[in-house]
Structure formats: structure tokens, C-alpha cells
Amino acid sequence: MFSLLKKNTAFFLPYFLCLLAGGVILVLYPKTDIHLFINSHHSPLGDFFFSNWTTIGLGITIIPVALILAFIRFRYMLISVLGFLVTVIINDSLKPLFHAPRPITVFGQLHQSLYLVPNVEMYSWNSFPSGHTATGFCMFCLLALYIPNKLAKFTCFVAALLIAYSRIYLSEHFLQDVYAASIIGISCALITYYWGMNGRLFNKFADRLDKPLINFSKKTQ
Predict the structure, then answer these.
(1) Is 221 among the domain residues?
(2) Fewer beta carbons within 10 angstroms: which end of the chain, N or C?
């Protein structure tokens, strides 16, 4: 596993640095203060960008991603679907367990107003952890593992980070919600990737799985 992290430092180094910085912020400041600071920095461009970019974290995103990966390497498609499903199951199992109030509920109880982006549907409960962030980090982490280019790996990290930030920007989640969700997404991605690339069950059909879907039925000569 360590060698896997080492080969993908363009993704994991900035991630761990952000994880460290986020951890320090969470220790030093109350979640409400952190949220109010982020909420005070908004703009029309930010509203437009983050209200659209956040949708990439929706579960339905796996469908086009999986279809594209299937025509590159069928094994990648299977790993991605499995990683995505495990992430969703774990994340959605934790939501009702914690039943945490979302920012709009917390600040409503404190009689404090928030800037809310127009035309964004707001939710009141099940804030912890963030589903969009978990699936976003799982998906982009796996893509970074598939892609050899370092710049592309770093771009995947930035894309996942922007999904996480969008959830706070839109006042759907607190920092701690996206912080924990990113760990869930990354962990599920690493575990499923490692198993998918090294597991006996997958390697038993390696002659077919390592081909694109169009050549799936053809065995290696």
C-alpha cells in the first residue's frame, strides 16, 4: 500500500497536507466560526461554479464514468463501481447513525442568518458525513490511480477538493462533515483498487478484465 501512495504523490501529498491543515483548523476553531468565515466569502461567479460543480459528487456520476472506463480497461470499471458502492454504503449508513443537523438547522437554532445560494435545495439533517464529498474523493482518487500523468493526478485532487469545498460553500455541510467524508472516500478507493489489482478473483480472469469492453470476449492468445 505504501508503494501505491508513493507512486501517486501528486495526488496524495496535497491531500495529506490539506488533511493536516483541516485537522488543525478543526481543533483550533468551532465549526460554526469556520462555517461563518467561509460563508462570508461568496460571489456570483462562486455561486454559479459551486452550485454546478457540486453535482459531480452525485451517485449518478458513476454511470458515465464506468462506461468510459469500460472501453479503456474493463478491470477499471469493476473496481470503480465496487469502490463507489462501498463508499455509498458506508457513508449512508453513518448518516442516520449520527443524524447531525446541517448548517441551516444549526444557525437557525442560534438565530443567525446565512448567505444561501439561490435555487439550491437545502437540507436540514444527516449532515455527517458528506455523501457528495465521499463519492467525489473515491471517484477522483481512483481516476488518479489509473492515470500515469502527474499533472492529471494533481488535477484529480483539485477536482475532488472543489467538490468538498462546494458542500461548505453551499451551506449543505460543515468542514468536519467533508473532512471525514474525504477519508471514507479515499480509504474505499485504495482498498478496492488494491484488491481489484491484486485479488485472486480478479486475476483469475485477467486475460479478459485487462482489455477494453469491445474486446472483452476475446481471450489472450
Answers:
(1) no
(2) C
Q: Per the structure, how many domains does the chain have?
A: 1
Residue 220 lies in a domain: no
Confidence of residue 1 (pLDDT cuts 50, 70, 90): confident
Chain centre distance of CA 202: 25
* pLDDT at res. 190: 97
Question: Do residues 181 and 127 touch, judged by C-beta distance below 8 A?
Answer: no
210 vs 207: CA distance, rounded Å? 6
Give how far the C-alpha of residue 20 lies from the chain's centroid of Cα atoms, to the nearest Å.
17
pLDDT band at 215 (very low <50, low <70, confident <90, very high): low
Longest dimension (CA), the chain: 70
Q: What is the mean pLDDT of the chain?
A: 92
- Any alpha helices (H) in 29-72, and if so which ranges? 31-39, 44-53, 62-70
Q: Is the model's pLDDT at 208 over the cut of 80?
A: no
Summarised one tens digit per residue, pLDDT across range 19-28 is 999 999 999 9
Provide the residue range defining the domain that includes 66.
Answer: 2-214
Q: Please report, for the domain that includes residue 184, its CATH number.
A: 1.20.144
Query: Secondary structure of the chain: what % helix, strand, coil (to 5)?
Result: 75, 0, 25
Residue 53: inside a domain, yes or no?
yes
